[in-house]
UniProtKB/TrEMBL annotation:
The chain crosses the membrane at residues 49-68, 80-99, 111-130, 137-157, 169-188, 200-220, 232-249, 269-288, 308-326, 333-352, 358-381, 402-419, 425-445. Keywords: Cell membrane, Membrane, Transmembrane, Transmembrane helix, Transport. It is a multi-pass membrane protein. SUPFAM superfamilies: MFS general substrate transporter. The keyword Transmembrane applies. This is EmrB/QacA subfamily drug resistance transporter. The keyword Secreted does not apply. InterPro entries: MFS (IPR011701), MFS_dom (IPR020846), MFS_trans_sf (IPR036259). It comes from Amycolatopsis thermoflava. GO terms for cellular component: plasma membrane.
Length: 457
């Protein structure tokens, strides 16, 4: 039997380095929106470029999450994690050195590809560091807390860097962080033999990427090119065909990327829907509020970052406390409470364009920051795991995170469509609030399958 001392000494160092890698990826999620107006001004780019700067990253991240997790099992977690860190760091350098907006968007997409390798594999590696259940739970809590801290620091750090050293510094900062994480894990992380895992569903992955990218392109570029444009109609038709072929292939293949029977479990379907709708509102807010504060009100990147502290600070703190709240109130009530906060927060943000000061809508950012972690993430995972067969638990978690990221993709894409200019922000916020309200109703209408929980745990 391994002593506690022997188990905790080296794993703690490895855990710290894994958290550095996780911090790197999550920092880029919240640091980039603050820089979007500066990047647009530097390149003389249009509104769609701003959307692609956010969605190129999130789209690649969302499309590859499930496959990246399987790669970690088949090729070894250490190899895939190191490749993800190295690739993300190099892609960040490419972002910093980008000569034009096209190159920057491509590099952002590359960041998303490698982020998809870092996030699920770093979580799996964290869970595998400790044999004691309580130590493992604490380690996962630290991992989750790190992401919360990164999200909270992103807007403030982004504003400081953009204002002090230009937007490129926001990507250069990833270089030393990435080097530390890569070098440290290369020397300290034990190499565990691959467990085999599921076979990679290459046709499914290709169809999924093609369909999702095509639909995102239409949502972002359709208004500018014209909805009756041959390019828009052709891309839309191709995307719908690819998504249809993906669904057909998932039903036919023996090892699907997204097992149809998984989404047939009501708890999983609900968790995926809640995560989609929660991130839809959050990312729509990130995009629209940033552009409004800087391009309409003339605030600096630093002042914008300070205003987002209410949102991301509450999001980070609540992410750490969410499991404890769910343990006290139950997952169903906690998710409903979170969705109520999101709904109220989004409705409150309709006051943004009334000319009222920050305190008239700052409370709405607080509610949004509290609501997202309470309704999604760890709480949603807990809500669905009792109904999921053990052999599908990892895929269920990955599926939920995929829907979560697609909520972000669609939120940014639709924001440009629903709110094309000043005076229209309220439309996106109202639509997102309606979605969160619908999700809350579905959660409260859901009856927990208590009888099955003891058999699965």
């Amino acid at each position: 039997m391994v002593s506690v001392r022997r188990v905790s000494a080296r794993p703690r160092l490895v855990l710290a380095l894994i958290c550095v890698a996780s911090f790197l990826v999550y920092l880029d999620t919240s640091i980039t929106p603050v820089a979007v107006p500066a990047i647009r001004a530097d390149f003389g780019a249009g509104p769609s470029v701003a959307q692609w700067l956010l969605d190129a990253y999130t789209l690649a991240f969302a499309c590859l999450l499930l496959t990246a997790g399987s790669l970690g099992d088949r090729l070894g977690r250490k190899s895939v994690l190191l490749a993800g860190i190295a690739g993300f760091t190099l892609a960040s350098v490419a972002c910093a050195a980008a000569p034009d907006s096209g190159a920057l968007i491509a590099a952002r997409g590359a960041q998303g590809v490698f982020a998809a390798a870092v996030v699920p594999v770093s979580l799996a590696a964290t869970a595998g560091l400790f044999t004691d259940a309580r130590a493992r739970a604490r380690a996962i809590g630290v991992w989750g807390g790190t992401s919360g801290v990164a999200l909270a620091l992103g807007p403030l750090l982004g504003g400081l860097l953009v204002e002090g050293a230009g937007w490129r510094s926001m990507f250069w900062i990833n270089l030393p962080i990435g080097v530390v994480a890569f070098a440290g894990l290369l020397w300290t992380m034990p190499r565990v033999a691959p467990s085999g895992g599921r076979r990679i569903d290459v046709p499914g992955q290709v169809l999924f990427v093609a369909g999702a990218a095509a639909v995102t392109y239409v949502l972002i570029e359709g208004r500018m090119l014209g909805w009756d444009s041959p390019v828009v109609l052709g891309v839309l038709a191709g995307g719908l065909v690819a998504l249809g072929a993906f669904v057909a292939w998932q039903r036919r293949t023996s090892e699907p990327m997204l097992p149809p029977r998984l989404l047939g479990i009501r708890e999983v379907a609900l968790a995926c829907a809640v995560n989609f709708l929660g991130l839809f509102g959050l990312y729509a807010v990130l995009y629209l509020v940033t552009v409004h504060l800087q391009e309409v009100l003339g605030l600096s990147p630093m002042a914008t970052g300070v205003r987002f502290l209410a949102l991301f600070g509450c999001l980070g703190v609540t992410a750490v406390l969410a499991s404890a709240v769910a343990a006290r109130l139950g997952t169903r009530v906690t998710m409903a409470l979170g969705l109520a906060c999101i709904t109220a927060g989004l409705l409150g943000l309709t006051l943004l364009e009334t000319g009222a000061g920050y305190w008239a809508y700052g409370w709405a950012l607080v509610l949004l920051g509290v609501g997202v972690p309470l309704s999604s993430g760890v709480v949603a995972i807990q809500a669905m795991m009792g109904a999921v067969p053990p052999e599908l638990s990892g895929t269920a978690s990955g599926s939920m995170n995929t829907f979560r990221q697609f909520g972000a993709v669609v939120g940014v894409a639709l924001a440009g469509l629903l709110s094309p200019g000043p005076g229209t922000l309220w439309v996106t916020f109202a639509v997102a609030a309606a979605g969160a309200l619908l999700a809350g109703v579905l959660v409260m209408a859901q009856r927990p399958a208590a009888a099955r929980v003891p058999e699965r745990v």
